[in-house]
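Translate sequence into structure tokens.
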Amino acid sequence: MGFVDLHLHLLPQIDDGARSMEDALQMARVLVANGFTAAAPSPHNRSEYAPREVCLQRLDEVRAALRAASISLELHVNSENQFVDEKLFESARPLAGGPYALIEAPYTTPLPVLPDVIFRLKLKGVTPLIAHPERCLEFERKGRAAEAVRGGALLQLDIAALVGRYGPQAKKLARTFLDQGLYAVAASDMHSPVGADKWLAESIAALEKAVGAPAVQALLATTPAALLRGEMK
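Result follows.
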């Protein structure tokens, strides 16, 4: 089974990701070269960025461009939502229209309401897939990541944290959460093609060294594919 990337900013001129269609195509080529066969581009769901209608239109445009360029990467609907916005409970854009939603916590501010937010989302039938907890202040609190998982959330590793792309603290937390078996999926969170061919390959190698080939398959292929299908964990 090919790898599936559930967090990346592939859609051009939508947010802080790809700047052009050529950027998007080059990012797709990097993914395919590293074993990915599917991806769910996750544009930021924020008022300062493009609305949902534009994101969906751009997704179709990228699909067409991939076909024209003979790049075999299947794309699915997704978005990166924010925990900090009270509108989350009404406006979260789910992964592939299913029961999961990719949601990011603040990087540098605490989020004491985290358990309540997870609980309220679960009541609405939404399972939060928390993006890159290793990069967020809230998850520096001992036991906080495990608490989120016990509460029904899933955690997503930004794979490049393993090679220090986000600094030593994120690298340390990523290894800790991996050792504790807390991550459900790993993803690229790619924003640009610049240098991506190098750091993505190194990151996948670091993940395999840390957890072994079967766990890599679970984190990058089996589980993300199941989430795309809406299968509950």
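Note: DSSP finds eight helices and eight strands in the chain.
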